[in-house]
Each structure stands twice: as C-alpha cells, then as structure tokens.
Design a protein that fits this description.
This protein is mostly helical. It has 10 helices and 2 strands, in the order H-H-H-H-H-H-H-H-E-E-H-H. It has one domain. A two-stranded antiparallel sheet has the order 1-2. The two termini are 22 Å apart.
Length: 271
C-alpha cells in the first residue's frame, strides 16, 4: 500500500480539493480529509477504528503545511487579525496537548467519528442560520480568549480539524467580519496542527496493526502527497474567499460541513 500508484492519485486529488477549501473557508482542510482518508485506509484493510484515528492524525499533520500557504495569501490581503491569533494561540497549544497526548488515545475510533459529526453539524447550523450577534458584543479579554483557545485546540485535537469549524463561528458571533474570521482561522491552523501532530506521533508509538509508512498515528505517504497538493491550491481558495459575498461564503461553509458530518455519523454508527 505504501507506494501504490492509485493511492498516490487519490491522495493528490484529496489534497487539491482540501487545499482549495482550506483557503476558501479557513477550515484547514481537515473537515474534508478525515472522512476520505478514513475511507481510503479502510478500503485497504486498516481496521475501522484505527483508520479513523489515523485519518484524524494524518489530516492534522497536513494542515501544518496547508495553513502556511493559506495564511500567506490571506495576510497579503491584510485580512488576518494577528491580535486575535496572539491571544488564542497559547490556549490552543494547551488544549491540543491535552487532546492529542491523552484523551485521543483513550477514545475509540467510532466515538471520535460521532464526536466529529456532532460538532461539525452544530457549526454548520450556526453558520447557516446566520444569526446576527448583538451589536455591542466583542471578543472577550485576554483570559477569555485563552480559555476559548483551549477549547478550540482541544476539540480540534479530537476530530482532526484545523479549528475553523469552531473559531470561525466564535469570531463571527463576536462581531468579527466573516472574511477576517476565515483568514484568522487559517492562521490559527498552524499552532493547532503542529501541537496536535506532535501529540499524535507520540501517542501512537507501539500501537498494533499500523500499516507500513506510519509514524505514530500519522500515515506519512498521505501526509507527503496531500501536503504537497494542498499547498498549491490554498492560495486559489483564499483568492476566491475574498471575491465571494458574505452570505455565499457562509452557505458554502455550512453545506460542506453538513455533508461531511453525515458521512462521519454513518462511520461512527457502523464502526
């Protein structure tokens, strides 16, 4: 399976799609990658529960590269709120470490799939309803953003996503403009991905039945191919994000999340 040509093609196509969506929606691509990597690995004989865990870990590792490309494109347009990044990032690292080094290893793959579906579906609903926040609502202070970052990092570590499914709704709820929220979420994807990826590698040491090419829970062939392809497409997604109107961007965000939540719900119930 390590160098199977069809496998390389599948991962390359997945990387192109997830990279574009990472730039477009600020979701790090993990929302797309987790269901598909899980299906690809399961089809090739990896046990269902382990396939979900490997998909989560591998998808998170690829976000390290995707986020760099995506945030560069958003930064050139002046859309990243670096003040928010600085306040959320420390909590994100703390939450990611707790999730990837501890809770992730204890939970079964089916439970993680159901958790993924639950939070993605909730985030999609919040975005689709497009509830207008109170005009006076703003982001919390330093302590509040530290706590919010911890929650974002922890939940991202459990479901293998870059955090956009929580951070974008959170920021828009606090009256941050959607385009700034998407761009800032892309920047937050880097500390989320790096902290969690390290945790997955450590937590996966000695796990039985891992396929050849795995380092901990991370499947290196998928990381290499998806990472390279996604970096190429992320700037194009970021360009499209700034061309779309706010309502269209929110509907696109919600639609993608609903589809992926439905698949992972099925995966969790049948695991």
């Amino acid at each position: 399976m390590f160098l199977e040509p069809l496998l390389i093609v599948e991962f390359a196509l997945l990387g192109l799609c997830s990279g574009f969506l990472a730039g477009l929606l600020g979701i790090g691509g993990g929302m797309v990658m987790v269901p598909f990597i899980s299906a690809i690995l399961s089809h090739r004989g990896v046990p269902g529960g382990l396939a979900v865990k490997m998909a989560i870990a591998t998808s998170m590792a690829t976000i390290v590269f995707t986020s760099i490309s995506s945030v560069r494109a958003h930064h050139q347009r002046g859309a990243v709120r670096w003040d928010i990044v600085r306040r959320l990032a420390p909590g994100i690292v703390i939450g990611a470490a707790i999730a990837s080094l501890g809770v992730f290893a204890l939970l079964k793959g089916g439970s993680l799939a159901l958790l993924f579906a639950l939070f993605v579906g909730f985030s999609a609903t919040q975005m689709l309803l497009d509830k207008k926040p109170q005009a006076s609502r703003t982001l919390p202070g330093a302590a509040g953003q530290l706590g919010a970052g911890t929650v974002i990092g922890f939940l991202s570590g459990l479901v293998g996503a870059g955090g956009g499914f929580i951070s974008v709704p959170f920021m828009t709820w606090c009256n941050v403009a959607i385009h700034n929220a998407v761009a800032t979420s892309a920047a937050l994807g880097f500390p989320i991905a790096l902290a969690n990826a390290i945790g997955y590698v450590i937590a996966g040491q000695g796990v039985p039945d891992l396929p050849a090419g795995s380092v901990g829970y991370v499947f290196v062939p998928a990381l290499a191919v998806i990472g390279a392809a996604s970096v190429l497409m992320a700037p194009l997604g970021a360009k499209a994000a700034h061309a779309l109107p706010v309502k269209s961007l929110k509907r696109a965000f919600a639609g993608v999340l609903y589809l992926l939540a439905a698949y992972m719900l099925y995966k969790g119930l049948t695991a």
